Amino acid sequence: MTETVTGETAPGIAPIPTTDPRVARAVDLVWREAELLDRRAYLAWEGLYAADGTYVVPIDPEIDEFDDVLNMIYDDARMRRMRVTRMTEGYAIAAVDAARTVRTVSRFVPETVSDTEVVIRSAQVLIAYKRGRHDIWAADLTHRIRLAADGPAGDTVVQKVVRLVDSESAVPAAGFLL
Amino acid sequence: MTQDVVGTAPADLVRTDRVAGRLYTDPELFELEMTRIFERSWIWVAHDSELPKPGSFKSTHVGRQPVIVTRDRKGTVRTLLNRCRHRGASVCEKPSGQVNGFTCPYHAWSYGLDGSLRGVPYPDGYEGVLEKRDLSLRRLRTESYGGMIFATLDEGAEPLEDFLGDARLWIDRFMKQGGGYPIKVLGRHRFTFRGNWKIQLENTTDGYHFPIVHRSWMASVDAETADMMSFMTDPECTTHDLGHGHSVMQMVPEHSDLDADDGSEPLQARFDELVAELSRSIDPPGVRKVVRAMHGTGFNLNLFPNVSMSAAFFRVLRPISVGETQIEHIAIGPDGPPELDAVNRARLRIHEHFQGPFGFGTPDDAEGWDRVQRGAGAAPEMPIMVNRGLAREKPSPEGWPTGHVTDETGMRAAYGRWKAMMGDD
């Protein structure tokens, strides 16, 4: 089946269940990603992304096009590569002494599903601890996941958008990734 | 060299070459700073482009006072205290937008864009006890120079142009990065750090930290950009004390006046694609102007006490408490025809690369400032040293005290102003 199913919350249209095996693959990838970021395994994290993938933390929570506006993060593969280098090479004092993080990703709602791609929304609550202080970072996530023909090991993130609840206010400068 | 800085009056805590660590940590000093500096000085509140037409507004702060900056029906820019004259509620909680006026949510007193009280519901209860003309939103003196809008709570403050003094020349130069067009605000990053506001004020005129704190950013940019920022040992790179607490730090002096261009400097190879795209609709001199200014001007102009015009963006500080400060990094670009959209897209990506809570520069700065605040909590009378380059400081032909770009000339300028204002009770 290559047809794309769109999940709607309107009456009369059945939601896409998270038990759909294609959705389950996407959820697995989102959770794997979350754990890699908490472990600061940035090289492995980078490997989850498609070469044409984008990683975005917008300021404006309402938009889907990010080219003509200022974002907190708007990474293509080149920027992601440099960001991972920055986070791992030991020169960046913010990354060297970064907060420890634990994040929970839940409230998954599939948006569209086909045999090749899943778009799935979720909620992320992250606690960052550094020097006696806990900061809360709450966000809505949207992942566009490309499903590989040869199985889940090849699934990749084509786009991840992290919409912080306080993206338009002042947030702490961070030495970790969302 | 390591004498402590002690004294009973605030002004005693600042000497030419050092200041007391208490300046970062003493809550009483912070309270005095709010009244003697932030409620008396000109405070930057907006850029002209943020208020494009009558009814445009922006919410911000003058010191700790919440204000709304508006463009009224006649086009005059006003700064209004965001506080209803009835029972004190804020009349606006939106960061910016377009309105006809402001209505208090509590009892619906309504105000015009110029702050005048327009309407009061059920007015019969106010017969004989209320004069609308006496109950406008409080207006702050508001003046602008070169598109930079400032407000002050001090009715007796000197005119803005006098306050800016020789900094005006550098504001004029800064605006040339529009490449023949005015500049406009493209977006803003907001972030907080747990440290005193003066740590940030110092940082924008601190060339000394750049290759150390920003080594990670330097490693991530192309060789041309890294080379452009390699000012550490170049004697041509200088910092001038411009008076009134203002200073200018020239990292790339050949870009201080962007109109001075003999055509010999090649455009950076990283912009080849952009040049090709622009060349389809813009003549070569026009393309060269905007592309040569992609990294902004070659200097940081530090305006005491709350705004820096920093290469290609504005950095605005807002003190929250003695140990917490909020910063905005405001991206700017040419306000030109749609053909220049590609320029602004590229400028946004450059801004994102360094600035903001997840940039390759800002988090490292913030970590450094956080560490200063934590360390300065020890031995509050021990000095914070601002003496680098003191022995080699000389007047420039214009008469400005001048040091190397890595010297602490700009910090001494700011602390000189701090000392004068804090000693003036």
Keywords:
heterodimer, A: 178 residues, alpha+beta, Nuclear Transport Factor 2, Chain: A, 7-stranded mixed beta sheet, 4 helices, 22% helix, B: 425 residues, Rieske Iron-sulfur Protein, Naphthalene 1,2-dioxygenase Alpha Subunit, Chain A, domain 1, 7-stranded antiparallel beta sheet
- Give the spatial strand order of the biggest sheet of chain B: 12-18-17-16-15-14-13-21-20
Major sheet attributes of chain A: 7 strands, mixed
By oligomeric state, this entry counts as heterodimer
Number of strands of chain B: 21
Number of domains of chain B: 2
CATH architecture of chain A: Roll
CATH topology of chain A: Nuclear Transport Factor 2, Chain: A
Q: Strand share of the residues of chain A? A: 35-45%
- The total count of strands of chain A amounts to 8
Strand line-up across the major sheet of chain A: 1-4-5-6-7-2-3
GO biological process, one term (chain A): 3-phenylpropionate catabolic process
Protein name (chain A): 3-phenylpropionate/cinnamic acid dioxygenase, small subunit
GO molecular function (chain A): dioxygenase activity
InterPro entries (chain A): NTF2-like_dom_sf (IPR032710), Rng_hydr_dOase-bsu (IPR000391)
